[in-house]
Amino acid sequence: MIAADQMPSVQITPLATWLAGVDARQTRVAIIGLGYVGLPLAMLFSSERFRVTGFDIDAAKVAALSAGQSYIHRIEPEHIAAAQRAGFHATSDFAGLRECDAVLICVPTPLREEHQPDMSFVQQTLEQLAPHTRAGQLIVLESTTWPGTTSELVVPTLERLGPAGSRVLREGDSDCTQLDGVMVAFSPEREDPGNLITPRREIPKVIGGVDGRASRAAAALYGTIFHRTVPVSSPEAAEMTKLLENIYRNVNIALVNELKQLCIAMGIDIWEVIEAASTKPFGFQPFYPGPGIGGHCIPVDPFYLTWRAKQFGQVTRFIELAGEINEAMPAFVLQTLDRALQREGKTLAGATILLLGIAYKRDVDDLRESPALVLFELLRQAGAEVSYNDPFFAEVGAGRHYSVKLQSTPLERVGEFDCVLLVTDHSTYDIAALVRASRLFVDTRNTTRGMSEPQIVRC
Fold first, then answer.
1. Which of 249, 333, 348, 431 would bridge with 382, disulfide CB 3.0–4.6 Å?
2. pLDDT (0 to 100) of residue 2
3. Of 217, 222, 172, 181, nearest to 200 (Cα)?
């Protein structure tokens, strides 16, 4: 125990001074996690003349950025160069965090087996960050998580492992204009990879601070790069907002995936039905079926809430059902493909299958939770010989839940395969030409609508 007279002195900064530093672009910004969320965020702040330091434990990413290279398709090397001219640099040395005024955490929050939240990346980040915190710093968690994470995990960890005498500012402090502690907030990322229509700056930024000072500081900082900030009453409200957004999509995608299977059985074109329903000017928003769901958000986030709900004695039946339907879609595709091969006198065992598109989404270089990876494993288990083509992945190795270890097959070889299975409809694909060259073409994305070639099977 350190005696009171031995406690290190705390330099107290007025909130007004902190806010003025943002306006003057004097605030030093740290971003931990330079992936699909963190790196674009670093580019935005750099474009506003902030000095940005990117932290990542992946030495390969740090080396690439230091060499002016990008590993994300939509971020060009010239973007990195422009950011470097504004003072951006990447490092794996967390000691530099103490010099930063704002620290934004953008690390993965995947699922463990049995749909349990994996908070190890957040926990490890907090443990590395905590010793380097100081009064007047703003710490913001952007990683999607369960409601209560900021208050029950972030705050206690920072206080337990932070420098002696450090504390997190809370509502009810005697002077709400002074920063004699660390400000903490949650502000969920809202990245939409592949979206070339909505500029990032046009996406409103939701912010929930542990206290009013954190909310004001975060709103001021994010307000420099986003045209609108949306403060809410608490970190829990902000955490739940992100989950609601993705659960809304998950449930509606599950609905059309279920209806697609019914429509196929009834001989109805689900895509025609959705198009017709979309003409209603109110009360309907179109969602579209597919071979499954992918990306970090929709397949993962709903289960964070179902896990959390159980701690309150609640059962989220609607959310769990939607998850089950969407997770079953690759198996439905497999069944359709199997029946199509049987009509050609073949079986899955021994069949040669080419997957078109292995990314989780059209025109993105992102494999996270891709249904193509699930289909890859299912086909292999059934005895098929599986290859893939994807313009964004020259080769695919092994990851947390998959082991592909192949190079992309040239499209000129399409005719060699018993079946071509279109999983991800990249815009570079000439669908008509690929259909003509294929013996059997199974379409999971409605790219062949209007075509009548006998080798087409839609699912």
1. 348
2. 41
3. 222
Per the residue annotation, which of 100, 106, 263, 297 is the catalytic one?
297
Say if 238 falls within a structural domain.
no
Catalytic residue status for 176: no
| CA atoms of 404 and 373, how far apart (whole Å) | 8
Both 310 and 282 in a single domain?
Answer: yes
Beta carbons of 226 and 201 less than 8 angstroms apart: yes
Q: Which of 276, 294, 325 is the last residue of a domain?
A: 325
Q: Round to whole Å and give the CA distance between 14 and 223.
A: 20
Q: Tell me the pLDDT tens digit for each residue of 103-132.
A: 999 999 999 877 899 999 999 999 999 999
Same domain, 226 and 342: no
Q: How far apart are CA 214 and CA 209, in angstroms?
A: 5
DSSP result, 411-432: GGGGGGSSEEEE-S--TT--HH
Compute the distance between CA of residue 133 and CA of residue 159 in angstroms, rounded to an integer. 10
The verdict on 145 and 37 lying in the same domain is yes
Q: How confident is the model at residue 60 (pLDDT cuts 50, 70, 90)?
A: very high
Structural domains counted in the chain? 3
CATH assignment of the domain containing 104: 3.40.50.720
Extract the tokens encoding 10. 């705390």
Range of the domain at 333: 328-458
